[in-house]
Design brief:
DNA polymerase, domain 1; TIM Barrel; 2 domains; 11-stranded mixed β-sheet; two-stranded parallel sheet; binds S-adenosyl-L-homocysteine
Length: 386
């Protein structure tokens, strides 16, 4: 490798690291931005303009903010961190048009996001952390542990980038990608408020779903925020004993505590909870499991979303037989439980969440995206700042 190129890469990396110490301007709400710019002697309307550029027009840099003076834009570029993503891969399903994205963050870390087209609008599934420390046995995202949490801006960037790439409005956002959102609570709340803000994309709170493995104190805190979002609980088992085999978090919080917390969430917000239940062949898919699930879901009027487990190569879990899945669903339906089987969107593209990132981490040329671009060798399918 050319030595000067290595140096150049080093500089790019250093700049990104330095930038990360600067104030992350896209994570500020309008009031915070107004105060920040006021401290620089700028009038409130400048903050409004800049906010619109960032969260309404989805600008990729200060440079695009053409109604702000050039010296001011340059000063901002010097002073603040402006997060941006680089699209490293995009896979599109031939079956249903679902698109899966691998994005590089400014420090070279990788996250995944998925874009799905439904009759009722476009939905984006975002990551909330780089990796995860929850250790669920069937999940690919957690195998290498947690690298770091995402800033509010970095969660927004995934939606902003996909909106620009597809040219279509996103109407639903689900926080079900890599990471445990409740393990990044403050940033998650900031993200939701920015995403649903009337001066930004103004996505309805009712169209935002946050999925958690069940961190009870954070679920209670979320209830008290009184947001109108949907909370999805990854239940996956109906007894503590079984749940502990699938999810280490079950050693911390019992199903009983979880159910009390779901009740509290419902009482505080009036929003029904969704139970996610990944069906694992021979583990949690018997008639008895179904009966117990009905007993848990019924008093809370929960919606149950059945997910045929997506086998990952690092573990030996298998999917339940199709007939078993159907029988399980029928049993719930007969008992008047509102139940759906998660449609397997994009079946022909990389399956379980976290697998694309893992696959790419294994490919040396992508470990350092900046380097891959500079070298221009072993180029991945796409390399685009978005
Ligand atoms: N940390 C959050 C978001 C995780 S991903 C949570 O635990 O809820 C969203 C859902 O997919 C969760 O219910 C998760 O348990 C489930 N999931 C993860 N890997 C899976 C796999 N290989 N097969 C089926 N479901 C999986």
């Amino acid at each position: 490798m050319d030595f000067t190129m290595q140096n150049l890469d080093g500089q790019i990396q250093n700049k990104n690291v330095q930038d990360r110490d600067k104030l992350d301007i896209k994570s500020l709400n309008l009031q915070e931005l107004t105060e920040e710019l006021a401290a620089q002697g700028e009038k409130a309307f400048r903050a409004k303009q800049m906010y619109e550029w960032m969260h309404g027009k989805l600008a990729r840099s200060f440079d695009e903010m053409t109604n702000l003076s050039k010296p001011f834009r340059e000063q901002c570029a010097e002073r603040y961190q402006y997060t941006a993503l680089r699209m490293l891969r995009m896979q599109e399903s031939k079956l249903d048009g679902t698109r899966k994205f691998l994005f590089g963050l400014s420090d070279g870390n990788l996250v995944e996001s998925v874009w799905m087209r439904y009759k009722h609008g476009n939905s984006v599934c975002i990551s909330s952390q780089v990796g995860c420390r929850m250790g669920c046995r069937f999940c690919a995202s957690t195998i290498d542990g947690l690298e770091r949490s995402l800033a509010p801006s970095e969660m927004l960037d995934q939606i902003y980038a996909i909106t620009r790439i597809t040219g279509e409005r996103v109407s639903n956002v689900v926080v079900m990608g890599i990471g445990e959102p409740m393990d990044n609570y403050e940033n998650l709340i900031k993200f939701i408020r920015l995403l649903t803000d009337e001066n930004g994309l103004h996505i309805s709170q009712r169209n935002v779903t946050v999925s958690t493995c069940g961190i009870v104190p954070r679920m209670r805190q979320l209830a008290e925020e009184k947001l109108q979002i949907t909370l999805a609980l990854s239940l996956h088992a109906t007894t503590d004993e079984k749940r502990k085999r699938l999810m280490p978090i079950a050693n911390r919080y019992s199903i009983r505590e979880l159910m009390e917390t779901c009740r509290y969430y419902f009482d505080c917000t009036g929003r029904r909870i969704t139970f996610e239940y990944s069906l694992v062949g021979g583990v949690n898919d018997t008639d008895e499991d179904a009966r117990e699930l009905i007993a848990l879901a019924e008093p809370l009027c929960c919606h149950v979303n059945l997910i045929p487990v997506n086998p990952i190569k690092e573990r030996d879990f298998v999917q339940s037989e199709a007939a078993r899945i159907q029988a399980f669903k029928n049993k719930l339906e007969r008992n008047k439980i509102n139940v759906t089987i998660r449609r397997e969107m994009g079946r022909d593209i990389d399956g379980a969440c976290g697998q694309l990132r893992r696959k790419n981490l294994a490919e040396a040329s992508l470990e350092d995206p900046a380097q891959a671009v500079t070298e221009g060798s072993a180029a991945p399918p796409v390399q685009e700042d978005v």
